[in-house]
Amino acid sequence: MIYSYNKLWKLLIDKKMSRTEMRKQAGISTNILAKMGKDEPISMESLAKICTFLNCGLDDIVEISPDTATEE
Q1: pLDDT number for residue 67
Q2: What are the pLDDT digits (tens) for 13-40?
Q3: Which residues of 21-49 are buried (b: 16+ CB within 10 A; e: fewer)?
Q4: How is domain 2-65 classified at the CATH fold level?
Q5: Nearest residue to 32 via CA among 68, 58, 22
Q6: 44, 46, 55, 48: which is closest to 17 by C-alpha?
Q7: Quick one: how far is CA 38 from the chain centroid?
Q8: DSSP 4-72
Q9: By percentage, how much of the chain surpasses pLDDT 90?
Q10: Which of these, 65, 54, 40, 43, lies nearest to 8 by C-alpha position?
């Protein structure tokens, strides 16, 4: 699976908010933010905290697509 948090980064720009500010206010760890920066998967609990803080849905912050290179 390929994860992309580009929608979240764009949303933060629109809200004139830094990643660090979002991290603190949403209550997620620096490790979670680092994983997101590398487009790695994070827990549903962390995604829910971000969505609750930003008052948005999952599809507003993350895109998940199949990794066609590893499909058999």
Answers
A1: 83
A2: 999 999 999 999 999 999 999 999 999 9
A3: ebbeebebeeebbebbeeeeebeeebbeb
A4: 434 Repressor (Amino-terminal Domain) (1.10.260)
A5: 22
A6: 55
A7: 10
A8: E-HHHHHHHHHTT--HHHHHHHHT--HHHHHHHHTT----HHHHHHHHHHHT--GGGT-EEE--TTT--
A9: 89
A10: 54
> Which tokens in the block code for residue 67?
């990794």
- Tell me the two tokens of residue 62: 């993350």
Task: Extract the tokens encoding 58.
Answer: 């999952």
Q: For residue 50, what are its two tokens? A: 């971000």
Tokens 């066609």 belong to 68
